[in-house]
Specification:
This protein is about 25% helix and about 20% strand. By secondary structure, the protein is an alpha/beta fold. The strands form four sheets. It has a seven-stranded parallel sheet. The protein has a five-stranded antiparallel sheet with strand order 10-11-17-13-14. It has a three-stranded antiparallel sheet with strand order 12-16-15, with no helix packed on it. Strand 6 and strand 7 form a beta hairpin. Helix 4 runs parallel beside helix 5. The protein is elongated and about 80 Å long.
């Protein structure tokens, strides 16, 4: 449990927003790196950035309707472009056709909807003249890399990095969440030559400044030093995340279609039921889900993304109490089932709808009442004698201690049906906040 920010582990679902001038090429937020575009060539997007339809109130309303409790926006991505009116650079939204600070209305919109305010900030900067070229830089294959690096000074860049973080955490009131991205020193990949980490960022001093400016903030683990939570990206952990045998707070960051920034031709969208199963699976293991959208160059959320958010919201309207404030259960779920637990209520998420019966090991005698969560309709509790022989119309026995629940044949109209089990007082439930 993060003692100074308990909201984080209770929220369970947030929205990640990757947005910047890379929305104009619409070919992935790493387009500058992938296509080895120079800063001069890339500046054409800077000159054309005019998000005339940008309305962060619509973003905030879409997030809240999806059941999200916090939003995290890229203040600056690896290309170095800043969405706010930084005093430390000219490479910012106020100098584009947008002509204004785009962070202030975002912060105000989130607060108006009762959402926690999060910033993403890249430690990497492919535009800054003092950021040394390395194996991740767009100019990594330039024939004159050595001469291009001559005169570059990471100490000057480090001062710039710290100064911009100070601006962000000083000028917009209370900030709840900060996602740094990313450290890549010593990863063992040949292509990451010259990788940067804690020494390059002076991570200890940077984190100390963050804590001083925003004492209640939560900070991720990508400074190459320990943070408040771990950040598995684009995969689902097999179980609760552990460090030295102890569970740690974690949040999986996931995309809708494999790209973070707006990627017009990427059609590899996850289905709504898969997204909901990813959320449930994470919460069952003590984690949060930070689900990304990449707005267009005009500032709108793509209709495909809005459809996904609306689908999640429809499910959350009826099932959110199996998510909010819930976490790891003391009981072990069978296959195709995920448990979450909140106090004396155990939530049984059925990834596959069985015919009539679901068998739950170890729960016999421990449940007082059970119902479908979507409509609070009762389902029946059975304990089948372990010695019962299977016959023509009689199912065979189940292992001792198994609770059998009789279900309707008709599956509820829900992406993931949920049973709500009320545990008997004698059961001492414990919830790990992992």
């Amino acid at each position: 449990m993060i003692q100074h920010a308990p909201w984080f582990e209770e929220a369970r679902l947030g929205m990640f927003v990757h947005w910047g001038i890379y929305a104009l090429p619409a070919r992935h937020e790493w387009v500058m790196n992938r296509e080895e575009i120079t800063a001069e060539e890339y500046s054409k997007y800077f000159r054309r950035f005019d998000p005339d339809l940008y309305d962060p109130r619509e973003w905030a309303r879409a997030a809240r309707a999806a059941g999200m409790r916090y939003v995290v926006l890229t203040t600056k991505h690896h290309d170095g472009f800043c969405l706010w009116d930084s005093a430390l650079t000219d490479y910012k939204a106020t100098n584009t056709p947008a002509g204004r600070d785009l962070i202030q209305p975002y912060v105000e919109a989130l607060r108006a909807e009762g959402l926690k305010v999060g910033f993403y900030h890249s430690l990497v900067d492919w535009h800054h003249p003092d950021f040394t070229i390395d194996g991740v830089h767009p100019q990594r294959n330039a024939v004159d890399v050595e001469s291009l690096n001559a005169g570059r000074d990471m100490a000057r860049y480090r001062e710039y990095l710290h100064g911009q973080v100070r601006e962000l955490l000083s000028n917009y009131g209370l900030i709840d969440y900060l996602f740094f991205d990313f450290s890549y020193a010593g990863l063992g990949h040949a292509e990451f030559w010259g990788g940067k980490g804690r020494k390059d960022w002076d991570s200890e001093a940077l984190l100390a400044m963050v804590r001083e400016l925003q004492p209640g903030i939560v900070v991720n683990d990508r400074l190459d030093i320990p943070g408040d939570f771990a950040t598995p990206e684009q995969y689902q952990p097999a179980g609760p995340m552990m460090l030295d045998g102890e569970p740690v707070t974690w949040e999986a960051c996931q995309t809708l279609n494999g790209s973070w920034g707006y990627d017009r031709d990427n059609q590899n969208y996850k289905s709504v039921d898969l997204l909901i199963r990813m959320l449930v699976d994470g919460v069952s293991k003590g984690g949060n889900l930070l689900l990304n959208v990449g707005p267009t160059g005009r500032g709108t959320i793509d209709p495909r993304a809005l459809e996904s958010l609306a689908g999640i919201g429809k499910w959350m309207e009826l099932h959110s109490r199996s998510i909010y404030g819930a976490g790891v259960s003391q009981f072990t779920a069978p296959s195709d089932v995920r448990y979450t637990q909140r106090g004396d209520r155990l939530y049984v998420h059925l990834f596959a709808w069985p015919f009539e019966y679901v068998h739950l090991p170890g729960l016999a005698g421990k449940v007082e009442y059970a119902q479908l969560l979507n409509d609070a309709s009762e389902v029946f509790l059975l304990e089948v004698d372990a010695d019962q022989q299977a016959m023509n119309m009689t199912p065979g026995g189940q292992p001792p201690g198994t609770l059998t629940i009789k279900l309707p044949v008709q599956r509820p109209d829900a992406a993931v049906p949920v049973l709500e089990l009320f545990l008997k007082p004698a059961v001492e439930p414990t919830v790990s906040h992992g």
